[in-house]
Amino acid sequence: MERTIQKKLAVGGDSWVTVDVYGEPDAPGLVVVPGVMSDAHTWRRVAGAIAAWPSVIVVNRRGRASSGPLTDSYSLRTEVEDLGVVLDEFDNARALFGWSYGGLITLLTANDRPIPQVIAYEPVMQPFGRHALPDLKSAAETTDWDRCVEIVNRQISGFSAAHVEDLRADQHGWAVLRRLSGPLYAELDALNTAPPLDVMARQADQVDLIIGQCNRGAAPYGTSFDNVRQHVAHARIHELPGQGHLAHIQAPAGLGHLLNNLAAT
């Protein structure tokens, strides 16, 4: 599926979000919500592998080029309201798919309004990465984006120092990670300071939660996934073989195939 249009939508706080639309813009669609350290462009290969919906709308959340700033009033609620604007614009959407922080956003949005289907890949919830907030705040205040990338990979995701050096060796890829780390502290802080949650996706007809096989029961993503499961009583659980948290980068076709198979009929 090819991208057909990009659209700019005004949201609260004098900001805006852009959306990349693949396929037929006026046809029933799947709305994709990326998480932190990710943007709409990062999800282009997954969108291209999806065929079960006639359109795929990928949200470029605020804080990323070419969307607007987070603004001083930014919170997790801001994200839910922004997604509501997208859904009002694309009122033919039949399903939401969110990855990581984006998964949490989709599950909370389905508390506010009826959604036929919500799919979330390794959604996270508080407490997640809370121990890294002081270091992230210091790095953000000094605009040390190299340090931000190191913190998210080492202190939060738990990757090795060798893995970080491999990332750094790819100059283009490292530059992208530095750019995407700009809103990281504010997003992680918003996640951890949001009001406690009791139930998620209460108005969703169907909920599908996906975990990568490599993260089953393992911190931080597998344990946060298990925490989320306790708040979504009617969810169906699926596993993506051979994958961890970054399936959209490492196996976009495989993830797209799984999404096609999960499409509600």
Automatic annotation (TrEMBL):
Recorded GO MF terms: hydrolase activity
Alphabetical list of InterPro entries matching this protein: AB_hydrolase_1, AB_hydrolase_fold
Name listed for the protein in its UniProt record: Hydrolase
UniProtKB keywords: Hydrolase
Keyword Aminoacyl-tRNA synthetase appears in the UniProt entry: no
Record SUPFAM superfamilies: alpha/beta-Hydrolases (SSF53474)
Domain AB hydrolase-1 residues, every copy: 30-253
Entry-linked Gene3D superfamilies: alpha/beta hydrolase
